[in-house]
Amino acid sequence: MPAYYYPNRMGRILVASLRAELGRDRLGEVLVAAGQPMLDNSGVLPNNLEKRFSFEVIASLQAGVEQVFGAREGRRLNYRVGQGTFERGLKDFDPVVGVADLPLRLVPLGVKFRVGLDVFARVFNQFSDQVVKISDTDTHYLWIIERCPVCWGRQTDEPCCQLAGGLLEEATFWASGGRRFAVEEAQCRARGDARCVFQIAKTPLE
Ligand SMILES: [Zn+2]
User: Which residues lie near ion ligand 1 (Cβ < 5 Å)?
Assistant: First the structure.
């Protein structure tokens, strides 16, 4: 099986968000459960774009949180960790993609939303081995992860890519200028589907 990776920089963002959400001690437990205790030392992940942070490690961190906190609470936490990665990611990747330069305030919500998702997908497609496609229906945008690191190699009864869901919710909040949209993982590879698909409502909540 070929090996797939995130760049070190994305790995650093993920570990930093885990630390902020769980606290240092619980993070330590998760890293041990995931078999990745060395990640506690931030020096092991240089802040560069070399692809060294494997999909196996990403999935093992998700499973580790579920193992330490229980599946239900662990998935809630993974969602929050995903939300936390957005702001860090925007700060760290903006210099290379120029997201903040987009004149998003000047275009209608639907267009803005679509442009934001496209840019966001490009970050993963360009800098990591994650493969993302975007499609839509009358009512939803579809964020289709053809090669998903979040559940890589896992088998679960329910969708388990909450990390990606949290990240998407924050990305759409940002792209829409501060509105919330329902995000749902409709298909998950770990549950036996062909790929991981998130539905994002086109109409904001409330
Ligand atoms: Zn997945």
Answer: 148, 150-151, 161, 196
Distance 203 CA to ligand 1 centre (A): 24
Cα–ligand 1 centroid distance for 106 (angstroms):
34
User: pTM for this one?
Assistant: 0.93
Q: How far is the CA of 118 from the centre of ligand 1 (A)?
A: 19
Burial of 196 (0-12, 13-18, 19+ CB in 10 A): buried
Ligand 1 center to 20 CA (angstroms) = 23
Residue 187 forms beta bridges with which residues? Answer: 197
Cα 133 to ligand 1 centroid, rounded to whole Å: 14
All structural domains of the chain, each given as residue ranges with its CATH number in brackets, are: 5-201 (3.90.1520.10)
Tell me the three state secondary structure of residue 151: coil
pLDDT at 205: 92
Q: pLDDT tens digits, residue range 115-151?
A: 888 888 999 999 999 999 999 999 999 999 999 999 9
| HSE-CB for 51 with a 13 A CA cutoff | 12
Q: Where are the beta strands (DSSP E) in the chain?
A: 5-7, 51-54, 131-136, 140-147, 183-187, 196-201
Find the 190 Cα to ligand 1 centroid distance in Å. 6
Other residues' Cβ atoms within 10 Å of the Cβ of residue 176:
17
pLDDT tens digits along 74-90: 999 999 999 999 989 88
